[in-house]
Amino acid sequence: SKATVSVLNCYRHIPTLIPTLFTMPAALTGLDGWPFNTATGLSPDDVVGVCVSGGLDSKSITKRLLEAGVKCICFTADLGQPDEEDINDVKEKMRPTGVSETVIVDLKEEMAEGCYEAVMAQAYYDGGYWQSTGIGRHVTVCGLLRAMKERGVTVLAHGATGRGNDQMRFERYTNVLEPEMKVYAPWRDPVLLVDFPGRKEMLSYLAKYNIGHTLPKTQKRYSTDSNLAGLSNEAEDLEALDTPMTIVKPLMGVWPKDAPDQTEEITLRFVKGRCTQINGKAVTPLQAILEANKLAGRNGIGLSNALENRLLGTKSRGVYEAPGMTLLGEAMQIVYQGTLDRRSMFLFKQLQTHVSDQMYDGRYFDPSCQAALTAIKQLAEAATGTVKLEMYKGNMHFLALTDMPATLYKEEDSSMEASSGLNPVSSQGYAEIQRVEAVAMAEAKVIRKGPYWTK
Q1: What is the pLDDT of residues 90-116, one digit of tens each?
Q2: For an engineered disulfide with 386, which of 150, 201, 403, 411 has Cβ 3.0 to 4.6 Å away?
Q3: What pTM was estimated for this model as a whole?
């Protein structure tokens, strides 16, 4: 449009002043050298590790870089994505671009450990949803960086949008783990933003090289990011707040109304804050998450809608699925209720909030987050017990809490009936001590008499 050309003409006069922010196409600026310039940070000697999914964006970016003379190797993290029938298909999807290699890095075990840590820390975010993406990013970057270094990669390229959280997570984790590794963000590169403003242009570009890509034949009008912990559904139709969350078709389970009409019981054994058995069978973290996803998913557990606070300061709306995390998190909370005293619980909640925020912000490896996790693991030393729940159409009902050696709950002490526990007469002394402070405050006239709204 004329407005766009006018803006670009303005930028033409200042590229040397802010080269790290703007790189305009040569046809518009009179400059050449893309992609090897100060704006991209790329040099002809660099080997770029492109994080790919095998989708339209991945193919378009990889082909465009290869055609410009950039040496590329593609990488995909296997995080147990429930929407991928075979993660190895990504290799075949990327092969037509001409990339020399697509590396699949198996991180399912690491992802399961990340899930366990989040459950122990009760690290859910705004609206109470389990941030599967936040957990997955530190696992992904850490795992892919190891594989990239083995192959001589000097630049990590990610496909995150310039408006979201993931760009910051990818870059911060790369910065703190491998500060010498450069980062390239294609969707913040003005050249590619001009080349590929939408799907139509990407499809046309690939067609020039006889690279096929079929868009999903579905009515789905939202994007999905998934891993072992769950799915986040965002964008397009879901951006409108008058769009119901029920437009989402669950991939890990069913909506509560579609769940069975019968209840299903489940028994979960925890030892020091980690689930070790499901229905009496010993499980590894990966086995536990997979089984919990299956059992909770078919009972409509773990679907939520949230308006979250992005780290960039904007609000984002999402519909989330995390059946297994929701089930394990509920059971873990019940064990904590039986083993943490009031002050420990207060401390735990502060640590929980900090860990959750740090994971969300891409600061999992920061000292404060690691210190908080260490404290949580100390509090979880006593969190051993067996929880029995009943699942029914999206709900979880408490049935029993047993085999809890460090329990602080004493039935005889809390009973309303005559028992051998706490002698109610002994409470008289405590009441008299409480009276001393209460009377002093009353005499000092610092107590407002009556409800606040009567002032």
Answers
A1: 999 999 999 999 999 999 999 999 999
A2: 403
A3: 0.88
